[in-house]
User: What shape does this take?
Amino acid sequence: MKAKVVLAVLLAGSMALAAAAQQPPPPAPGAAPAPPAGPRRGGGLPPPEPAEHVTGNIYKIFGGGGNTLVVVQKDGVVLVDTKMPGNGPYIVEQVKKITDKPVKLIINTHSHPDHVGSNDYLREQYPNVRIVMNEGAKQELSGPRGNPKLLPTETFTDHMTIGSGADRIELYHTGRGHTNGDTFVYFPSARLLCMGDVMAWNMAPFLPAGGAEAIAEETAAIVKLMKGKVDLVEEGHGHMNTWAGLVRLAKFDRALVDAAKKHYDAGDPPGMAVDDLKKNPDFAPLLDTHIKKGLEYGNTPLARANMNVNVAYLEFAGEPVGFGVANGAPLKATAKHRGSDPKDTAPPTPEMLANEVAK
Ligand SMILES: [Zn+2]
Ligand SMILES: [Zn+2]
Assistant: This one.
């Protein structure tokens, strides 16, 4: 009986994984422009762009799925995340423009296909490569539909240190949030922290697995661990951010849950919680009404904040939280709570797409 339950959970997990490949739920048909043509398509996501220099020996490749960080160390290259399937040749091409050294280590921030998708290609090109991810991420990738070539060569549970001196890397898992196996990757010599999709596009995170309360706790925990140690923050998607940006997001994630609780208890619609968040001017970038560059298929920061309040309402009502209605469609009213306004989570309009922000 117990084995059957475990199998059912694994099956559900692998199906959710496929659905969660792209960060937000897909917009309604016709709402997004056609993805760019060409050999480097990221499975519907914007294609990758040439590597940009971040600091010292660190570079970043944007697009084609999640960001890929390229770190050139003494005896080889470290990659954080490998984008959607099909981007491996482009990643290798970019690495070879930077250095002749081989890729020795891949660290995956989580199990979603836009972050592990080219593990298989890189493993073929570099047969000795180490692939490290959290044990929870390995389990999410190990379902019957999973590709065994994406799996890690080793895993960790809470904390792992790799290398020493200037090449030291620290991995942390502070709980469930975006997935069950999120990893934060810290490069002490560069004072740089990779957040995976716990922080992406400088907006409230997508919540396919953990829920609003869980991700607020997870983010607060990494902020507490890293205080005084970080200057640069690499988000899972989008542009580089800073320690101040991460602290702001952590405060926002917590404030969102608190505001949601207040209005849930009062029987108010979820939009009133977002109105509370708007009163804090520091939160303005996280409530922006423009589509972000590279997120043309998705939605605005403001819409995501509304979605996450909807998720919090489900949690307070004791209803299941996961990849579902509250992550996209409006929340329906029930006996326990009032529903959300459909326009708060509507797909982007042509006007929004035309006003896409450039930075
Ligand atoms: Zn992602
Ligand atoms: Zn993700």
About this structure: Residues 84 and 114 are 4 Å apart (CA to CA). Confidence is low (pLDDT under 50) at residues 1-43. The pocket of zinc ion (ligand 1) is lined by residues 23, 66, 112, 114-115, 197, 236-237 (CB under 6 Å). The two ends are 52 Å apart (CA to CA).
